[in-house]
């Protein structure tokens, strides 16, 4: 099983199937397949399926809204275009891709037995999903490195915007490179003598197709899964823990305030309340990343390194994998809350976006129903300028 999407359905542990064109148009009756294995077309009852749909829908909507808002704030406010905010913008873009290309296909894959799409979608969805998740993780490391550089090594030359753009390009190139083997191996194949049964009064059956990685040997799949685990979870987590831990120690043991300087324009006063707030944010980032992705990686390694029987695989793919995917994807919807709520500049930017939206609606309402008013309608300047609410300063720790 490779990262990140395709849930290892029970049939994916079977030998590689033959590869006819994907088609669900041929139907058969149960009586014509006496020696075949039949699986339900829908894996869950309507009640359980509704719970899954609601859970994934919440993650999808919050991911779309939160990350889109972060993008709007950074793009529309020139003063927000700092190095760290560029990294946060890239994180929001990668998290948006996670929401678009990971959440809906994973939900569909959880609800329906087998793979309901063609091979092109199988390859593209696997590549884009893995690429977006990898870019999100690598960007978290870049943000940690930037903050480590500013707080722990404040007198060294700070990254320029051009260098930040280069790092972002490298992040995406690495994300593409590490997922290329998976994209090359992904294929759609029919599982012989396995059929899906649609309970529609006629017990109509459909041939079962799966989207899987056609490795020539199972050991190659294990090696690749291990490489992904090390590079997309273990090493990034260790780096994030080390750098944020160093920042926390620096803030806890520093008696002088961290003031603005020429090499690193980060302004955060030295009051205990401010320091505690920064430490809470850093610890929260590391903990949520670790907790969100650990169950999914544990399950993937468990499937690849243990010869699980049909019943164990069925249990894992039926309930544990859907929850693990949901928890992992929820990290992409939580990131805007962390980097927004704990950052005063983003909070002001969010407020400016909402005020501008409300002001626009009010102006339309007044123009429609108050044509006889004495003078032009007006809004607060902060709203009409698209985000300049109060004086912006560069800090990422204010």
From TrEMBL:
Residues 370-398 are annotated as: Disordered. GO terms for cellular component: plasma membrane. Keywords: Cell membrane, Disulfide bond, G-protein coupled receptor, Glycoprotein, Membrane, Receptor, Transducer, Transmembrane, Transmembrane helix. The keyword Nucleus does not apply. SMART domains: 7TM_GPCR_Srsx. It is found in: Cell membrane. GO terms for biological process: cellular response to hormone stimulus. Residues 66-339 form the G-protein coupled receptors family 1 profile domain. The chain crosses the membrane at residues 47-75, 87-108, 120-143, 164-188, 223-244, 281-303, 323-342. PROSITE patterns: G_PROTEIN_RECEP_F1_1, G_PROTEIN_RECEP_F1_2. It comes from the Eukaryota. InterPro entries: GPCR_Rhodpsn, GPCR_Rhodpsn_7TM, NPFF_rcpt. The keyword Transport does not apply. Receptor for NPAF (A-18-F-amide) and NPFF (F-8-F-amide) neuropeptides, also known as morphine-modulating peptides. Can also be activated by a variety of naturally occurring or synthetic FMRF-amide like ligands. This receptor mediates its action by association with G proteins that activate a phosphatidylinositol-calcium second messenger system. PANTHER family: NEUROPEPTIDE FF RECEPTOR 1-RELATED, NEUROPEPTIDE RECEPTOR-RELATED G-PROTEIN COUPLED RECEPTOR. This is Neuropeptide FF receptor 1. It comes from Podarcis muralis.
